[in-house]
Amino acid sequence: MTFRFSPRPNRAAEIGWRPWGGKAFQEAQVADKPVLLAISAVWCHWCHVMDETSYSDPEVIRLINERYVPIRVDNDERPDVNRRYNMGGWPTTAFLTVISRAGRRPLGVPAFGPRATRGRAS
Fold first, then answer.
1. CA 44 to the chain's CA centroid
2. Do the domain assignments include residue 52?
3. What is the pLDDT of residues 19-59, one digit of tens each?
4. Would residue 120 count as lying in a domain?
5. Is residue 114 part of a domain?
6. Considering the domain boundaries, does residue 34 fall inside one?
7. Range 20-52 burial, b when 16+ CB lie within 10 A, else e
């Protein structure tokens, strides 16, 4: 799969992005790591800024590659994923958990969003 990044200089491609799919979630389960889900769009200015800043910082790159299974989703290619996890705009970064082989969740993440959804599991 080819991932698209900002056309301006950036280092986002140094993150070991995986495509959305069962293989990535299986990897997260076996490695007992949470998934870092990045939803972006090629036409999104702030997605380009994210690639050029946060995802180009050497320490951020190192930590993401070391501690997460990073998945990158293009909004236009996977609108279903965007509908489920995007809570208001792009870029969206969500931390997802999988049930580990030990039977526990490796990370608890609160949900952020409209007041009506706070505190409820989705």
1. 16
2. yes
3. 999 999 999 999 999 999 999 999 999 999 999 999 999 99
4. no
5. no
6. yes
7. beeebbeebbeeebbbbbbbbbeebeebbebbb
- Give CA–CA dist 81/84, Å, rounded: 5
Count of CB atoms situated within 10 Å of the CB of 75: 20
pLDDT single digits (tens) 78-111? 999 999 998 888 899 999 987 655 554 444 443 3
Location of structure tokens 């993440």: 109
Q: How many domains does the chain have?
A: 1
Q: How far apart are CA 55 and CA 120, in angstroms?
A: 30
Residue 107 token pair: 């990370």
pTM of the model as a whole: 0.78
In the structure encoding, which two tokens stand for residue 75, read together?
């909004």
